[in-house]
Design goal:
The protein contains 9 helices and 5 strands, in the order E-H-E-H-E-H-E-H-E-H-H-H-H-H. By secondary structure, the protein is α/β, with parallel strands linked by helices. The protein folds into 2 domains: 129 residues, Response regulator (Rossmann fold); 63 residues, Winged helix-like DNA-binding domain superfamily/Winged helix DNA-binding domain (Arc Repressor Mutant, subunit A). The chain has a 5-stranded parallel beta sheet with strand order 2-1-3-4-5, sandwiched between helices. Helix 5 packs across helix 9, helix 6 packs across helix 7 and helix 7 packs across helix 8. The radius of gyration is 24 Å and the shape is elongated.
């Protein structure tokens, strides 16, 4: 998937920008370069794929401000910060805002490549989790009102007998609904079903 091999390089120093871009291109990455953070933000409106490698000391908008702006605009592209002035407060601020790595110039080529690979793997994992969460929510939305009532009982740890009694239905009917829920949710067992439902509830901020 080419989108997952995209790297956005942001640096006001053309020499650094070109050197980093050449290194990444040589390693098979699709590289987009920008002379400023605002230029990246303007271009990123159409695509948020890959990861970002940005300098921290730049005019107009520095790397820390960029990360804050990305967070504000809900741009989840992972960010690697490059700096020639690395210090603990800067690293802590960048990490608190969501940067996943910080490299001090001059850095080894291998260190940058390793950081980019880690960032892209993290992005892939997040996208996979997002797709799985969306699929589970879609399956939950397909449940009928009665099936949701049965599911609520199961999440409370109630037995089929107790659920049937509470809902005023036969145990056999409760068992049929439970089997339908398992099939619709594609859950192999009750533990898997509970895990899916709780994860979906947690991701939407709904009470369990």
């Amino acid at each position: 998937m080419t989108n997952h091999r995209v790297v956005h390089v942001i640096d006001d120093d053309a020499a650094v920008r070109d050197a980093v871009g050449l290194l990444l291109s040589t390693e098979g990455f699709k590289v987009h370069t920008y002379a400023s953070a605002p230029a990246f933000l303007k271009a990123s409106a159409a695509h948020h794929e890959g990861c970002v490698v940005t300098d921290v000391r730049m005019p107009e908008m520095n790397g820390i401000e960029l990360i804050a702006k990305m967070k504000e605009e809900r741009i989840t592209t992972p960010v690697i910060v490059l700096t020639a002035h690395a210090d603990v407060p800067l690293a802590v601020e960048a990490m608190k805002l969501g940067a996943i790595d910080l490299l001090e110039k001059p850095f080894e080529d291998a260190a940058l490549l390793a950081a980019v690979d880690a960032a892209l793997q993290r992005r892939d994992a997040e996208e996979t989790r997002s797709r799985e969460s969306a699929a589970v929510k879609s399956r939950l939305a397909s449940l009928t009102r009665r099936e949701n009532e049965i599911l609520a009982g199961l999440l409370k740890g109630l037995s089929n007998k107790v659920i049937a009694h509470d809902l005023g239905i036969s145990i056999r009917t409760a068992e049929v609904h439970r089997a339908n829920i398992m099939a619709k949710m594609r859950a192999g067992n009750l533990a898997e079903l509970v895990k899916m439902a709780l994860a979906a509830s947690s991701s939407t901020g709904e009470p369990e």
